[in-house]
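Two entries, shown back to back:
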Amino acid sequence: IIKPAWASHAPTLTLSILERLNGEAMLADAEIARQITAKILHLIQTQGENTKPLYLPNVVNNTQHLLTVGGGRRVGVLVSKGGTGILLQMLLSASKEWPPSEELMLQLHSVLAKVGPKDRKFGVKARLNGALNVTVNLLKQNLQNPKLLLPCLQVLRVYSSNSVNAVSLGKNGLVELMFKIIGPFSKKNTSLLKVALDTLGALLKSKTNARRAVDRAHVPVLLYIYQDWHRNDTRHRHMLIRKGILGCLKNITNIKLGRRAFLDADGMRILYNTSTECLPVRTLDPLINTSSLIMRKCFPKNRLPLPTIKSVFHHQLPHIPAGGPVAQLYSQPPGVDDVVDESDDNEDAEAENDTENEEDKDLHAQNDDIETDISKLRPRETPSRPFEELKIYERFFLELSEDFQGFNFDNPKAAVIDPVTAPKSHCSITVPTAQGLPPKYPTTAPLQGERHLAKDARPRPETSSPAPGRVGGVEEGAEEDGDEGAVLEVPDTALLLPLHDPDLYVEMVKSTRSVPQYSQVAYPDYFGHVAPTFREHILERVYGVQRTKIFQDIERLIHPNDILDKVVYDLDIQSSPVVDDGESLKFNSQFESGNLRKAIQVRRYEYDLVLNSDINSNHYHQWFYFEVSGMCVGAPYRFNIINCEKSNSQFNYGMQVLMYSVQEAIGGRPRWVRTGADICYYKNHFSRSSIAAGGQKGKSYYTMTFSMTFNHKDDVCYFAYHYPYTYSTLKMHLQKLEALRTPQVYLRQDILCETLGGNGCPLLTITAMPESTSNDQICQFRNRPLVFLSARVHPGETNASWVMKGTLEFLMGTSPLAQSLREAYIFKIVPMLNPDGVVNGNHRCSLSGEDLNRQWQSPSPELHPTIYHTKSLLQYLTAIQRAPLVFCDYHGHSRKKNVFMYGCSLKETVWQTNISATSCDLHEDLGYRTLPKILSQIAPAFSMASCSFVVERSKEATARVVVWREMGVQRSYTMESTLCGCDQGKYKGLQIGTRELEEMGAQFCVALLRLKRLTCPLELRNHAHLLDVESDFIETRCKVTSPSTYVLEDEEHSFMEEVDYSAESGDELEHEPDVADTHDNHLSDSESNSQRDALT
């Protein structure tokens, strides 16, 4: 076969055409790009191995130009056509020539540097083709040739992104080669140095290579190089090089040896000093953030300053559960150190790699939690308990058989239904006094009355309140001597707080039983709280505040001599917990609902605070309530709560702590106010043991920090997580409500049961009295539908009690709307399901050490009496065919804004899964959405968009799910109220207060009345006049007090906070969905990014 003469010139002709077309705009067309790419591939493939590649440099050169002009689309076409493999084969073939063509090698690596990032399997292909060693050997031979060095490094950077390749390249000496290329500050070859640092950083993600770098003593070298670049790059033109060096250090310090080498090389001081010098320049924030991340990672883990993480207080249980955390707590051998593990530094944990798919993991975990068993999404058809066992609960439902034959309707006051009152106690109770308060702060408010103390009253030595006195323990009939002793000036708040009475509160405290046997009363609970009239905005986050706090923590390690480390309050020394040396703040938490275990003075105006675990538990540190005194006016105090457990908090998104000033209260302003500056929540260096972390090692606690400047000398101030509402406060409110009862109200108060701690659990029955004893009236009275309400199963969710207070006050009110509501329903209310937890300052558990809202499936009458008997009430109602129309359990939410509901829906649960179900299986009445829909229309704090009706496996033992599943109550809800504030409606941008919470409780009542009209419209056709009353009520409650006008909408828009709720990039997210607002961006973009990078 004779080849045509023009065949030998075909490559030349094709190349000339390519060169001409390369500059033409028509190559932007994808089809033409494919044709040209195909021609290039054909040219490459026709250059046989035995043929001298005369035109290969031109082909590769044209390929490079085409890819440069065409961008990512042309690279993608080349990859899809198999171009990567051909280029790698060409590289291998070219390397076999000796000497290899420098021009060809330069062009091939330049093309591969463009193709590699677009080919997901580039690293694997390069390894299988043997290209790794070709590039490494070429690099070794051309260390002094910057022109060839740059494309080689660019290709190696892509190679190293594959973890297997990184290990192989490390064994081939690439790590040592990189340290020959990088060096101190120089204005030459900066682009090359940047690529070399990126390549080294990718290599050091391998733990093997990181250990190799440590063994070769490269950590001090990196620190020296970083210092040199920091010192000489005065105009900050080479920030990317400095960031590349920090990236290498960040990857090395992912292993234990790297962290140790970093500390030995004085890395903490070096990065701290360089970062401090960078602070004034905003553009250097990426360097500061990465440095902060490295320093936090390398900060030596400290032991939490406690002898044990178990609670200071202990309550012996009647029997120990067979399994669970309480059983593990009791089976723990004596002498075991439960504060810190022996080896708490997990060498195998690479925090950065664990977080790459954190969002996917969290979403996957949420989907896995959804119930997929349809049989469990249906009500039970058989009763769970024999009716004979439930008959004893008939005594709590006298209204269902009441005939009122002995009731005098002409004189209703003569037949008041007596409430069950708790027995009185004669224990000594210490209440606040005016003795010791400075005389230059006289009260400016009218006094409610003077309270004199007994002659022998003396301050308790352990108290830190200013000279409290003893008023309890006086024998009946004994006369008090008012000539001596201190006089307590109580602000006159009777008109503003009709349900509060200081004397009555003290009487209630006397009958309250606590494990520590508290004998003191806190000022705020004694004085009462009047909601402020001013608005309290969600706090705007100051840029860099968290970084500043972290740097101050790092200073403790760098300048240890500046740290006082003086314990000023310690409940573990119960004989004398308060240290009063006249130079430090005085702390106290020995009162009802108080929680503070230890206070340590770190610097003159800075204190580390440690919270107490729930009793019979070793965790749940969130609720706090403590007293502070002995402060200096104008001094910037910083308080750090150092053993928080949740991975994030609304304290990062505008929530403030609550403070109550006694001087302000005596001055006529008795109120809790949102306060605190520079608030943030972040992971700290205190180690959390595997015992406390559910078996996980290497975990840390979190710090909630805030700064405070006090305005009054010799003041006594209280700080709390949220507005306190004690068990004694509830008892006082119930007695006051009974005293304010009108003849039209049927009110009965029973004690449902006694708790483990010996406190009564109140049960209220509220409805309207019948107008007469006629059969029609009595029949209507007995057959009203029931509404069952409960609250405060979690002691730390005090907002639930304030919502319940609003509900109770509305139900007991005299308005036509309240009377109509009472005529429509019988209300059964358990206002506090966990009195013991509330009394003893727990956050989550009862004295059994368990979350009572996870015990509804099989509650124990001995360990969970309030849940057992409350469930029994509902089972009794179900057995007599009187299951409630609505069940709602009031809660508080620490990670969401607004008020919202969780309900139960078969359809909405199935829709979230991949299970198949027939239309018959999914038949469901949509009435469960009616009540939250009504609330979204009338309650400004309520958000329908935040509601969820999906049933999760982890919630199958909660009240909401059990009442829905076992009692068949379609409208079974948990109503969650934010601890922070709102991001929609009238209260958008405001922190929530007791006024708004009580309003929410009242609005819930109005919604129930609307629900009644929708379910039984004929019964209320004669009450049309109430429509105007209800509208007036809604308008009053929704009165605009902010520039953003509230509009009743059919649906709330969905929202998501831009800032991730994970306060630590390497920590887990909790598996409860977090909803927030796209507009709630209190962090600037750079601050938000930095939080995801280093400071969070």
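entry 2 starts here
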Amino acid sequence: MGDHFEKGQHALLNEGEENEMEIFGYRTQGCRKTLCLAGSIFSFGILPLVFYWRPAWHVWANCVPCSLQEADVVLLRTTDEFQTYSWKKVMWIYLSSLNSEFGVTPDHPLITDEEFIINRAIRKPDLKVRCIKVQKIRYVWNNLEEQFQKIGCLEDWLSSTKIHLKFGSGLTREEQAIRRLICGPNTIDVKITPIWKLLIKEVLNPFYIFQLFSVCLWFSEDYKEYAFAIIIMSIMSIALTVYDLREQSVKLHRLVESHNSITVSVCGRKAGVQELESRFLVPGDLLVLTGNKVQMPCDAILIDGSCVVDEGMLTGESIPVTKTPLPKTESSEPWKTQSEADYKRHVLFCGTEIIQARGACSGTVRAVVLQTGFNTAKGDLVRSILYPKPMNFKLYRDAIRFLLCLVGTATIGMIYTLCVYVLSGESPEEVVKKALDVITIAVPPALPAALTTGIIYAQRRLKKRGIFCISPQRINVCGQLNLVCFDKTGTLTRDGLDLWGVVPCDRSGFQEIHSFASGRSLPWGPLCAAMATCHSLILLDGTIQGDPLDLKMFEATTWEMALSGDDFHIKGVPAHAVVVKPCKTASQVPVEGIAILHQFPFSSALQRMTVIAQEMGGDRLAFMKGAPERVASFCQPETVPTSFVSELQSYTTQGFRVIALAYKKLEMDHHSTALTRDKVESDLIFLGLLILENRLKDETKPVLEELISARIRTVMVTGDNLQTAITVARKSGMVSESQKVILIEANETTGSPSASMTWKLVEEKKHIAYSNQNNYINIREEVSDNGREGSYHFALSGKSFQVISQHFSSLLPKILINGTIFARMSPGQKSSLVEEFQKLEEGRAALVTSFCMFKYMALYSMIQYVGVLLLYWETNSLSNYQFLFQDLAITTLIGITMNLNGAYPKLVPFRPAGRLISPPLLLSVIFNILLSLAMHIVGFILVQRQPWYSMEMHSVCTLQNESISKLIISPTAPEKIGSNGAFTSFENTTIWFLGTINCIIVALIFSKGKPFRQPIYTNYIFVLVLVIQLSVCLFILFADIPELYRRLDLLCTPILWRVYIIIMLSSNFIVSLVVEEAIIENRALWMTFKRCFGYQSKSQYRIWQRALANDPSWPLLNQTSFSDMPGCGRGVSYSNPVFESNEEQL
């Protein structure tokens, strides 16, 4: 399809989003549809099958291009590299049904108001809406903007003021009815797919269609045994696949079934509060949330009250999260961007559980429905399961090319067969059968099944180690892994945090550290109050729950937590608020307790949290906790000790996690919820530092050492302090002692669109203040330019990464080449970083196994192909039992057992080839094909030149001790006897023995062991199978058993000729083994070839690496770069630098 379209025919759906698609308009044409119907009948269903495999062809054949406004069919194409096509019919939604009930007419105010997409979608005066449904999401035609737009969610442009004003009182019944009809039901409906549908979908796979063709051909040639074997294997494969798909469908249905049957309270603008089934909810509805343990049936924006939510269903972490109401500001900015904090702190997501709902002044908790159905967070999760992303791995694309090459080879063989058999005067039926036979020989029907067994075995080995894979095909992708990103806390370090101590401070500076290991309780003061109140802990069923860090901090105070009663308002505390009290054994605490009135929750973007608390009968206070640098920036400068930077650095360089605390007194003339965050978080008094110890896991260092020794890069991406991250990187071995760390700091210039970037060397010095075993890290401002000596690593913060991405995009790939430590990274920045690394590519063993199986199946098919074509020259072929022995007794057993090799226990410092078309693999396959071809031709010609070949023969079997001269042999050809005399000949016998034993030889040679898999001798079953197969073949070769030879359509030959066959096979084995080991698998030799011929990798990673190696000014040290300097801005674009695909590594 070209790039020239009619006006309005082409557009983008979900532009800029992950599921972006191109959409093309088409109109069905009657004459085209009739022709396609006729073609379907006359092609006996082949045309519909082709249209099923190629949806775009269906549309192009049945329809003509038109504008999207006139289209009754749309063609969709994904904008990713796969460019997958699908098509949908345009449907109509009629609003006329609402006329009788609500009097909805074209001039109704709800219809004429075109502020929202829903209203713009209604075509007047006939009151109908055009829509399409793509991957469970409904899109309506916006008549004003003339494009399809997503429906089922509130518009992104809405400001917080607009949300409160428009939806704060709920919707009218008319608005609800219109939205319900256009947006559809609020259901995540995953129907259980019927078995017959799954069966048809599986059977229509091109692979099974080819198998059906092969089986029909074999039955016509009376090759029933192998046909039945293939049928049985296919039925088992189909049955297992359908069973798995059905089980997944049932599980997914049960997972979301409860979502559609929840009863909620909805507040209408005129109808008041009423109970409603959740499936009737529409975007804009006002929910009234009451009680605890409530499942959210939709995504909703909290506009009044606060909630504690368990988001474990979405995040996997069952840590209570506090949600705060969307503030009603005067800003006209979209509500998602008006605050510097993450907008998600105001959103209650579908599928999460509300643990506690607490009302504010009005006493009720209210939320506006944001998204319904599959538009919700839960719906998006379910859609990702229903419509997974295609897997991009060159192995599978190469596999298709490989199969096409086999098809091309088969085509050549077909032409050769037609010529030979037509010229020999064979019947047309026989000619067609022999020609079609070549296809089933050259393209082995058992190839996909053989590859699948390897992946299944790999999956089982991983499962035994507690590793589960929901997409088994991706195991092969792991074989190309060359970079691993690690989080710090809970991944490299232990899950739990130990509270090491607290460093108080006053006007004179930092005081002596208070160690909790001593058992002494922390003296009463603002610092103790901050630790007791500045957290997001909740009391649920008498148990304190929340973030582990908050829990450790609170437990260190030895205080207790309770809920205030109805009479607490006498002491200035609202009812049902969280109250912390000193324990009964505590002394010299002048307050009865402190109530937590309001929270500004922790946000990764803000790196802090704040609470408003009320002393019983005392002052109202604000406490802040967070990253030291952030907390200090909100404090009165005179309260922050002058030694703040050095004190912080002394702990972070030892790997401690450091949290700062601050507070201030608040006026009592405002309600706590009326105070804005900006007003509360200002002019604070710095209180001190909380020191937490996060030790490395025992397995961290050995795992990182193994990865590094295998030349797999390790990168740390954490939300923790930069200096802490550097220390952990050194202690874990991610950065070795001999390697340097260069700190990159980037900042936007105030009042200017430009930015600056500074490069500093991080120097190690011994420091004995707190531990003789730790290192002190100092940032050197002035240092000689010795950063190029040895390797180096870049370390930078999330803020710097953001600035570099925006202002120094040309330098970003250079930094990523050696970027190892990324600290203070928000979740969004982590995702962006991984995307920049994205094209990097038990996996190695599975990948090598797949390559071995590809090579073996290719050789098996080519060996059989060469042998059959040689016999076709004499208008001969292999008999059914000969084919059966090779296909079933040899190849099938090898295919099942060859994949049983386990992974080698140690990773080597290079990866296996990532492509089937890499030079070593191609050379291996081509060389062995040529070697087999040469051996078969030599055997074919030599057997015809033997002195006994042309003699008359009365019996095909020789008598023991009888000389060749006494044999009576026909002068023209051997006597045709046996079950199928047409096949018996000396050529047939020779070719069959050579081909059969050669299949065993290539299986042995191609079954690679080290360095990626266990040695072949550890695969006992496979070795046993090869020994038995070879023994049986040699027994048949040397055993003069007439009945056995008759069954296999073989002729007895002189002992000397049998020895010749063994010599030819042995020569083939020795040559193949020597070439495979000395050339094909000789990595040093290939590297030498690359150097001799000046080959250089074309991968982005290698190009950048070479450029940096030849740049004497890199890495930069003690310099400041500006974004408006030449070569530093956005002038140079790049496509993800990443790392090379491994065809260059060999």
